[in-house]
Each structure stands twice: as structure tokens, then as C-alpha cells.
Design a protein that fits this description.
The structure holds two protein chains of two kinds. Chain A is mainly beta. Chain A is about 0% helix and about 55% strand. Chain A starts with a strand and ends with a strand. The chains are: A mainly beta, B mainly beta.
Chain lengths: ~120, ~110
């Protein structure tokens, strides 16, 4: 079975550029999560979607960050304009939401470097 | 979510059982114990979770004490590929509740 698929795996870009990270959740999963991992802050939740609707975006750092989920099989996380402090590994995870208590399954992440 | 406490590092010989402890003394009645691991440069991998009873799957066993204040993850026959950071997470069993990752335990399996 295909797991959560993220692209690109690596992204290096210059400060000020727009960055778009992509995620394809596991087929049939209806909850999707974006996390960010840094050495300083560890793994932190940025935003959570349920049935394509954003439910909790309290972890989104600031207005430069935006996330969309146009359909059940695709989500994007966009940073515009990007800054060096956005450098991190960004993970997408999905789960089957049927009353809770379902594990989240993670992709292999996008390693983002902003120069 | 309840806070968890894990040892920062552990070593285990290849082929032996690895027993990873976790303390969660403030766990609430509706909170589950989840275990994930993260191998270098990969995403966190779900291992197992439980509420009250001990659980076993193809990867590991989870032993939860009767008072639910601590648990142990058991890898019955550790291999070199089990070297990873292991995270014990206590999470409310409701839809979309976030996973709060702590520092975890760095398990090193030695040949």
C-alpha cells in the first residue's frame, strides 16, 4: 500500500522566494496534518484538516504560511515570502477519522533550506 | 495532553529484547498511549497504541501498568534497523487531536 507521499523531498531556495510543499495522503484517509521539525523546537503541528476543511491552524507561524486541501487526495503548504528561519523538515501525516483513536501515518518529509 | 518522561538514551544488543520505559503519571482516563519511532532522515513511524490493556502487533508489544501511570514498549528481537528515536505520546482519543512529540529515547542496537 502506498503511504503518505510528499514532494519535493528536498528544496533549496533563496530568501524571499515562494515555496510550495505537496502532500498526497493515504487513500481513504480523511484527516491530514502538517508538521514542522527543527532541532530547536522538535516536531510541532502546523495545521489539521478534516474532510478537506481546516479545523485547527493555531500552529501556523504567521501569515506567510498558508495551507490548502482542494480535494481528498491533495494538500499544499505554501510559504510566501520564505525566510531563512523557515528552514526545517516539513512532514505531512494522514489518518482515518472515524471517531478518534486512529494513528497518524507520516510521509518522509520535505527538507527545506532557505538561503 | 499528559506529559511523558523517557530516558534520553538506551543501548541494546542485537537479537535481544529492547524494553523502553515511559512515565505518564498525569494521564487522564480518556488518553491513549501511543508509540512512534523516527529513523534518521525519515518521517515518524507509528508502532502501537493502547488504552488500558496490553497490546501486541507485528512490530512490538505495549505493556501498560494497572494504574496507567507508566508503560513499556518491547521490541522482542532487536535488529540494527531498530536503531531510532522512540517517542512515547499520550493523546486524547478524539478526532484530530494532535500528537505532541517530546525528546524521546535514542535506542542504539549494537551488533
Amino acid at each position: 500500500d502506498a503511504g503518505v507521499i510528499q514532494s519535493p523531498r528536498h528544496e533549496v531556495t533563496e530568501m524571499g522566494q515562494e515555496v510550495t510543499l505537496r502532500c498526497k495522503p493515504i487513500s481513504g484517509h480523511n484527516s491530514l496534518f502538517w508538521y514542522r521539525q527543527t532541532m530547536m523546537r522538535g516536531l510541532e503541528l502546523l495545521i489539521y484538516f478534516n474532510n478537506n476543511v481546516p479545523i485547527d491552524d493555531s500552529g501556523m507561524p504567521e501569515d506567510r504560511f498558508s495551507a490548502k486541501m482542494p480535494n481528498a487526495s491533495f494538500s499544499t503548504l505554501k510559504i510566501q515570502p520564505s525566510e531563512p528561519r523557515d528552514s526545517a523538515v516539513y512532514f505531512c501525516a494522514s489518518s482515518l477519522n472515524r471517531g478518534g483513536n486512529q494513528p497518524q501515518h507520516f510521509g518522509d518529509g520535505t527538507r527545506l533550506s532557505i538561503l | 495532553d499528559a506529559k511523558t518522561t523517557q530516558p534520553p538514551s538506551m543501548d541494546c544488543a542485537e537479537g535481544r529484547a529492547a524494553n523502553l520505559p515511559c512515565n505518564h503519571s498525569t494521564i487522564s482516563g480518556n488518553e491513549y498511549v501511543y508509540w512512534y519511532r523516527q529513523i534518521h532522515s525519515q518521517g515518524p513511524q507509528y508502532i502501537i497504541h493502547g488504552l488500558k490493556n496490553n497490546e501486541t502487533n507485528e512490530m512490538a508489544s505495549l505493556i501498560i501498568t494497572e494504574d496507567r501511570k507508566s508503560s513499556t514498549l518491547i521490541l522482542p528481537h532487536a535488529t540494527l534497523r531498530d536503531t531510532a528515536v522512540y517517542y512515547c505520546i499520550v493523546r486524547v482519543g478524539t478526532s484530530g487531536s494532535r500528537l505532541t512529540f517530546g525528546e524521546g529515547t535514542q535506542l542504539t542496537v549494537n551488533p
